[in-house]
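pasting for the record
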Amino acid sequence: MVDEKIVDKKISEIIELLRKEKPDVGIALTRSTPLELLTLQGVARKTANIVLSGAFGKLEGIAVDTHVKRLSFLIHHGRKVCTARKPLCSDCILNMLCPPAFTFG
């Protein structure tokens, strides 16, 4: 579940950052590369990748939350079960939630 207070705070911070960045233009994002976005205060790789994907439709990288990574190791979903060439979908406890499950030859 998404914490609405955190989302609202992040949105407010982003809007304020954009107002400082381009006060004469209003809220407009002109930086459209990872390196340009990383020059903004408070923007790291994860945020840059999400902005590039959502605002510009660019898939420059994958944003993985630390909690997702931590949980993936806890449930042994990762290199041991979901391998690149031949995933063991029948052994995976997430196979019913995974759209590509059982689609590999």
